Amino acid sequence: MREKMELLPDPVRMVEGLRDTGYQFNTAVADVIDNSIAADASFVDIALEMDYRGNITLAIYDDGIGMDRDELINAMKYGSKPRPSPASLGKFGLGLKTASTAFCRRLSVISRNNASAPLVRATWDLDHIRDTNKWELLIDDPTQEEIDSFQNIIGKNKGTLVLWQKVDRLLKNYARTGGVAAKRAFNKIAEDLQTHLGMVFQRFLDPNDNRARNVTMRLNGKQLQHWDPFCVQESKIVSKESPDVALGNDTTAKFDIKAFVLPRKEEFSSEDAAKQARISNTNQGIFIYRENRLIHGPDWLRMFSKEPHLSLLRVEFSFDHRLDEAFQIDIKKSQIILDEALYDFILDFLTPPRRAAEELYRKGRKVKTTDVSKTAHDSSNRNIGSKQREISQPEIQSIDQINSEAELINSQGPVRLRLKITTASKPLEVHVQPVDSIDDGLLWEPCLIDGHCGVRINTNHPYYEKVYLPNLAAGVTIQGMDALLWGISVAELNCVRDDTKSSFAELRYEVSRNLRKLVQDLPEAREAE
Asked: Which end of the chain is more exposed for a tag (fewer CB within 10 A), N or C?
């Protein structure tokens, strides 16, 4: 005998568990604003405030179509009924609730769908759910203060107010709630939100972008400005396509993809334009837009890691709701999982743009570093040359320059290695050799220079640009850093075995990558000099 039973989830465990869906604050606020845009709002006003006690509130007003009582109850339901248009920015009927309660314990929505109708309020209060252990949505009239605020912002129009209270997950605990340190942290959060929203809703905020209808947004009384990551007035489109790609589930993907290569900083039309571009490792990659709203990126979708030589490359990828299933869009609309055919297409598409961006980057870096690095390591070569007999080094048995292989006898015994075998570009440069690039973006690698154990140093690695270059006048500092890298390289050649080759290679890769991240926020050489 089969029994059917409706089994409701435990209210407290459910609402508390949904607080941990992984929302970041900026993402959560953007998700709430999605509902405003889906409601055809032309104006969105955001007020993020903290009082002297440290109590934080977030209020998001819009002049959209608004809701009556029944529509409001549906909107507050977990898994609400879908909107009429599948192109709506709201997708699962969960974003308003999960995004809000990820940071607050009391979510209220106040709305009306007719200018002459009274405002109605519905509230999810997590403390009330905890006390009653019931899925009780609180429906009542808004306070006079809420009515006055609504009238002040929206006027006598229809619209909606989303209100976060009991915000408990935005700031860490400070010794003095509302004190100087807390206010400083709070102001930084507001600044980051402003930047994030200007990027996510760029196409809606830019009055000259006809891909999306114009929406005016304010944050704490200041109108938000759009940020164009592609700097279309300054950059060059090196590749673009609007293809049909057959996916594995017998569907066809239709989308637009464009690759932009930005100018080097010194080639922008003005210093302000260069500053607005925000050129950095962080901002390189693919920017993915669903229905004209940025939902993911920038990153390279696990195709390859962010490297300095790709810092000038940004890719615009736009699709509509018809590809939601192909991309397996999640609740936060931030997860992107590519079909194999789509992955392969994008990877092939990126090959020429990557090459163009790398060439432009290296051209600029070469001009910047080649001249100053020509003599920078002369003292190091002389110093190492005078001390090398005192250093334990492997014995070189044979060199195969054609295949880049050498046979050595080191402290572990005989070993055959693939490594760079080169010649000195000038007299005495047989220990430390600066080069324009090294495979995999490494900072250094061991080598043989005219039969001597040496080290090649990548002058295009950020560590060289931000640590070496500002210290060129300090000869002792350069000698010290060169001695360290040469010593590490010689130690590798003297200790490596057949079964440890890959470990040493991985160590160089990891250290080079970590150093790239560690110096990311250091000033450029010309700023530090």
From this structure: N
